[in-house]
From TrEMBL:
Residues 5-256 form the ABC transporter domain. GO terms for cellular component: plasma membrane. SUPFAM superfamilies: P-loop containing nucleoside triphosphate hydrolases. InterPro entries: AAA+_ATPase (IPR003593), ABC_Ni/Peptide_Import (IPR050388), ABC_transporter-like_ATP-bd (IPR003439), ABC_transporter-like_CS (IPR017871), Oligopep_ABC_C (IPR013563), P-loop_NTPase (IPR027417). It comes from Actinoplanes regularis. The keyword Lyase does not apply. Keywords: ATP-binding, Cell membrane, Membrane, Nucleotide-binding, Transport. It comes from the Bacteria. It is a peripheral membrane protein. This is Oligopeptide transport system ATP-binding protein. It is found in: Cell membrane. Transmembrane segments: none annotated. PROSITE patterns: ABC_TRANSPORTER_1, ABC_TRANSPORTER_2. Belongs to the ABC transporter superfamily.
Length: 329
């Protein structure tokens, strides 16, 4: 299957007062139609910037794509005019953010805001747009959609507001939905419900779904494949089962060990020592080396580990010189 979305060798830089921050440093991944890809990593690893680069909304603070391609159905989005880009963003690739409250306008009802999308992009009448808004609220499982459509954002709970945001993103039937930390602001029960909803909608609509998260615990049941990012690179890429059962990169392994487990209640979890690097000052060699339990001399020397093929069937890669040792344990 040809990929729906393919990101190759993506580099993004930010000019900061401390120098050039290399937020994305050669990221590669792809998404097939009807597939769910999770992009995983701690904050500051480049996940959100990658999403913003795909959406073409890299502008605060000034960020630039300096190299690479973002192909959607074979067309490099980076070569399109701003106008063409806007059309892709409106109709093909949609995104939802962590903070649903600030993304909704407090002075209009959710029905009006949803209806606005149909009036503007589909030229619908006010009443037809409202009808579609009700249908969408219903599809994202908001109870009593017919009456809730006239409520204001503050009248919804956090979880229900996130459902409204999902409805908004789905309004124009995108082929790709990018969800950036969609459940982080919610409590655990609601998180699971929203993840379940996204999984259902992905299946019903056969959409490509990209789930961006720092929490390995929330995507295990939902994702088909996982790309793990560290310091602006994809350091491991594999089908979800393989990642959880036999991680090939020490960073993935450390992330797995830090998932809270129900049967370990009250016990100290292992957290990864240290912090991700400051992006204006990424360590030489493998960027993970100061935190890595497997690190040795070769890891502290440039160039950074290349993309090693871990296996062909299933397709797996890892950027670690010693992936065989890591996976063998
Ligand atoms: Fe650790 Fe070295 Fe592998 Fe980097 S290359 S993850 S430092 S073992
Ligand atoms: Mg983020």
């Amino acid at each position: 299957r040809a990929p729906l979305l393919e990101v190759s060798d993506l580099h993004v830089e930010f000019r900061t007062q401390y120098g050039v921050a290399k937020a994305i440093n050669g990221a590669n991944f792809w998404l097939s139609a009807g597939e769910t890809l999770a992009i995983l990593g701690e904050s500051g690893c480049g996940k959100s910037v990658t999403a913003q680069a795909i959406m073409g909304i890299l502008d605060t603070p000034p960020g630039y794509v300096t190299q690479g391609q973002i192909k959607y159905r074979g067309v490099d989005l980076l070569k399109l005019s701003e106008n063409e880009r806007r059309k892709v963003r409106a109709n093909r690739i949609a995104m939802i953010f962590q903070d649903a409250l600030s993304a909704l306008n407090p002075v209009y009802t959710v029905g009006f805001q949803l209806g606005e999308v149909f009036r503007k992009h589909r030229g619908m009448s006010r009443s037809a747009a409202k009808q579609r808004a009700i249908e969408l609220l219903d599809q994202v499982k908001i109870p009593a959609a017919r009456t809730r459509v006239d409520d204001y954002p503050h009248q919804f709970s956090g979880g229900m507001r996130q459902r409204v945001m999902i409805a908004m993103a789905l309004a124009l039937d995108p082929e790709v939905l990018i969800a950036d930390e969609p459940t982080t602001a919610l409590d655990v029960t609601v998180q699971a419900q929203i993840m379940g909803l996204l999984a259902d909608l992905q299946r019903e609509r056969n959409m490509g779904l990209i789930l961006i998260t720092h929490d390995m615990g929330v995507v295990a049941d939902v994702a088909d494949r996982i790309s793990v990012m560290y310091a602006g690179r994809v350091v491991e890429e594999a089908p979800v089962y393989d990642i959880y059962s036999r991680p090939a990169h020490p960073y993935t392994r450390a992330l797995l060990e830090s998932i809270p487990r129900l049967d370990m209640k009250g016990q100290q979890l292992s957290v990864i020592r240290g912090l991700p690097p400051v992006l204006t000052d990424v360590p030489k060699g493998c960027a993970f080396n100061p935190r890595c339990a497997y690190a040795r001399d070769a890891c502290r020397q440039d160039p950074a580990p290349p993309v090693y093929q871990v296996s062909q069937q299933p397709h797996r890669t890892a950027r670690c010189h010693f992936f065989r040792e890591v996976i063998g344990e």
